[in-house]
Amino acid sequence: MEDLEALERDLLAAVAGAEDRDALEAVRVLALGKKGEITSRLKGLAEISPDARKATAQILNRLKDRLGQEIATRAEALAETALSARLAAEKIDVTLPARPEAEGRIHPVSHVVEEIVEIFAAMGFVVAQGPDIEDDFHNFTALNIPPEHPARQMHDTFYLPAQADGRRPLLRTHTSPVQIRSMQAAPPPYRLIAPGRTFRCDSDQTHTPMFHQVEGLVIARDIHMGHLKGVLRDFARAFFEIDGLKMRFRPSYFPFTEPSAEVDIGCRRRGDEIKIGEGDDWLEIAGCGMVHPKVLRHVGLDPDEWQGFAFGMGIDRVAMLKYGIPDLRDMFEPDLQWLQKFGFRPYDAPSLGRGLGR
Known about the structure:
- Helix 1 packs parallel to helix 4 and helix 2 (21-32) packs antiparallel against helix 4 (50-90).
- A hairpin with a 2-residue loop joins strand 6 (247-254) and strand 7.
- The protein contains 11 helices and 10 strands.
- 40% of the residues lie in helices and 20% in strands.
């Protein structure tokens, strides 16, 4: 019996001293496995006398049960210790600041749209919107664009499949159709701007198939070219944040305005660098003019009673000029590093009082 007591002490000490689950499993196999110490002694009971067999069997079964319980208890303790060590190693200090690269940025086009809306809202303009998919009337005919005009050709315009009546919808080539729809929807006077996406078959450093424009329209009685010049002058000086910015209006041609003009601002060119507001050079930023009488008649207005002006400019282009963005195509690439450089923080909302830019 003494050897069984010694065996019990040794096995229980081995269980208590197991430092991990592998060591504990080795003790279990040594004691209770198919060839383990206790298993072998239970198999050998048949070789001893009947009187000793009963007492020995009781001791071995009690030792087997106790050893099983001790192994289970030690396994649970080892699991808790391992979990505590893992939690300690993987803990996160929630007081640490967030990584800078996790900060989101507002795209410069979105920010510039907000700048433009802020400026014109202060002048009493409202924002109007219209569909990206237009029909021929609103995109061309109502704007006095003749059937033979190159803008109607497929090499300039994205046409969609013909409808049942044979007419082909198209992706709007400018936001001017919004002006037509706005004049059809309500009586004059009008003072509105229409920022939005436009589409043309073009792609290079300063053109993309999808780009952004803003158009403006003012219709009332006794409106003249001086009002147009004043609005665009105040806009340009507020947008580029340069008091006394030089401007000039050059005669031009657009089917939907008469007379028509292109708007230039003063700049200085030095290599690839353009500095707005300095030097004796000029840079074109917008087209404008007095609304053509035929456009007014298309929406049911009498041009002898109502007059007005319209203007339009590329939002992407003025964003490039103001913030030094070299290539228009980069604006439409999924490049987080580019957005981190040229983008705006979410709470940098444009304000005429605080400043429009950064």
